[in-house]
């Protein structure tokens, strides 16, 4: 049984073929103009899912980078303050050695005591160091100065830890409390209390205490500062290593993301030119096939 091919059937088929060719041409045009291999999920469902996963990973990596850079800034501010505290402690030791000599008169010792009082204030000033508007030695009380300049010497912060996440499930503590570094006075035997004790012994003319317990206490305070600086340096090295690792991971993820969703421009333009030529040829062929007229129906 033969099937009759009508002009309307031919027209529909030609139009359908032209539409498919044009849709393909339009998709290639969109790919070329956007620079993206995937312009909608239906273009490549697997590639779309993979690109979304990589973008989520990239967002997490960049957040960890921000955290790590913030941690580095905090560590650097802490190290700078600790270095200045160490200078204060060493200068105090030199003054104690000078004032402990039996050849120094009472007036000179009182003058040295006044210098040490000023150094105690400088010590507290360094302990009030800030980074990005936050006090670095105050524990989690970052908006309140840990120490009030002048009297009393009490510590106004806390000893809680501030941490930054620098990787998936990886956190580092970035702070050290002022109470651990210089103490809070009041006979706790830490650096700030030692300076107050030294000043009192100078005023009292107690050379034996200055040469004995006071020098040993200062040396212990300086050793304590060095220990804190060593720990801070180790944390800094760890964070710097994380920054380097995160930068490498970011670069790798961006490259993979580009390979997944970015179009090969040269290849896309070749495809576009080929498809455009095919579409123009299809238009001409269709025009030649669909030329129905009144004479065609009268034959």
UniProtKB/TrEMBL annotation:
Lineage of origin: Bacteria, Bacillati, Actinomycetota, Thermoleophilia, Solirubrobacterales
GO (cellular component) term, any one: bacterial-type flagellum hook
Alphabetic keyword roster: Bacterial flagellum
Keyword Metal-binding found: no
GO molecular function, one term: structural molecule activity
Record-linked SUPFAM superfamilies: Phase 1 flagellin (SSF64518)
4Fe-4S as UniProt keyword: no
Top-rank taxon: Bacteria
Family note: Belongs to the bacterial flagellin family.
Subcellular location: Bacterial flagellum
Flagellin N-terminal domain location: 6-142
All residue ranges annotated as the Flagellin C-terminal domain in the record: 217-298
GO biological process: bacterial-type flagellum-dependent cell motility
Designated name of the protein: Flagellar hook-associated protein FlgL
Region (Disordered): 28-47
